Protein: FSD2 protein
Organism: Neopipo cinnamomea
Amino acid sequence: RLQEFLKQEVNLELSTLPDFEERVIDFSEVEQLMNSINAIPAPCAPVINPQAPNAATGTSLRVCWGLFSDDTVEGYQLCYKPVSNERHSDEQAEHTLKVKETYCTITNLLPNTQYEFWVSALNASGISPPSERAVYVTAPSPPIIKSKKIRSCENAALVCWESGDINPVDSYTVEL
C-alpha cells in the first residue's frame, strides 16, 4: 500500500490563501528591561587628591585620585592644562591622557608652573562627570650661580645667582 501511495501525484497547493493580520509588536519596553538587568551604571565622579609633598620635579608631576563608591571602572581620562592669569586662559591647550590606574606621572612640563588637573572615570556604560579641578605646581628649575660674582674672605662668602624661572620663586635654600 505504501508503494501505491508513493506512486500517486500529490497536489501541494492550498485551496484557500491564509489570511494573516500584519501585527507589529513593540518590544522596546521588554528590551529596556532586559538591558537594565545586565547593565552596570556609569561611574560617579572621582575625587582628585591635592598635590602631595615631593610629587613634583621641574618637569614632571605625579597626580593621584580615588573613588568614593564601589563603581565598576575600566579606566580613567585625565585632563590638564597650564594655569594662566590672562583673560584667554580657556584657550590654553588641554591635554587628555587615558590611564588604567588611579595615579599618573605627567612629564615634559614647564618648571615652576601651575597646572590644573581633572579626571573622569570610564566603564562600558559611559563616562562619569569630571572631578573637581586641582592645581598642582612643578618645582622651580635650579638657580644659575653667577661664578664671576662670587667673593670670599676668611669669615664670609658672597654667592650670587639668578632664577631661570618665569614665575617668582618663594625661597631658596643655600647649603654649605
Q: What stands out?
A: DSSP finds two helices and twelve strands in the chain. The helical segments are 2-7, 28-38.
